[in-house]
Amino acid sequence: MNNRLPPAWSKHIKPGPAPKAKGPILKPLVNLQQGNAQSRAQADDALLKQAYIHQQAKRLDEAQDLCLRVLARTPNHPLALYMLGTLYLRYDNERALRYFARAVGEDPKNPYYHLSLGEAYVKVSEYSPAIKHMQYALELQPGLVEALCALGRVYTEFDKPDMALPLYEKALKINRDHPKVRVGLASALAGMGRMDEAAVYLKEAIERRIGVPAAYSELVQTRKFTGEPEELQSILR
């Protein structure tokens, strides 16, 4: 709304002296409100740090309660929503998906939120949105090894190992000791029929003690196709 008087009226009005203050001038409440917001944010952070400690110690109920306390005070807190998603993943994938989706809605530029939402979509067998969110996570952070491996795994499961291979190769250049890189790379190579190369990466993983159980399991699978089992020769004789 414009408070300026029309020109025909304004020339008849003479400015008078400014009124004197009759009491103390009240300071605006902006600083007080900012202080309250900061203290609330600090309290939320402290609760979520404690929730993370509980989660790492497998005290999931305590972690959930703290996250819900944060949401009761700060609705749609993105990190609280994200942590609840991680708590429910594998136990209630549909619920985890909803929490991750809300976290993405509150903080759409966070690559980890998109990655986790994509992984939740994989859990409920919705692969198209899973790929979409994993790809977007990589647009936001191209060197995110977890996203490279997750997307590579989806492509391998979709019988597209040729699309997975460059993702794992990029991940290997970024972090050669990540537990999912060599096993995923070997799986992609095996899917392309390159068993000997796959075995090399799996043996490297075992020698480096990186993801040993998964590496052994994958190595057994590659050996099924690289030659006849020794036991077969004794049967044929």
UniProtKB/TrEMBL annotation:
GO terms for molecular function: transferase activity. PANTHER family: CELL DIVISION CYCLE 16,23,27, CELL DIVISION CYCLE PROTEIN 27 HOMOLOG. Signal peptide: none annotated. It comes from Mesorhizobium sanjuanii. Residues 1-21 are annotated as: Disordered. It comes from the Bacteria. Keywords: TPR repeat, Transferase. SMART domains: TPR. PROSITE patterns: TPR. TPR repeats lie at residues 78-110, 111-144, 145-178. Pfam families: TPR_16 (PF13432), TPR_19 (PF14559), TPR_6 (PF13174). InterPro entries: TPR-like_helical_dom_sf (IPR011990), TPR_rpt (IPR019734). This is Sulfotransferase.
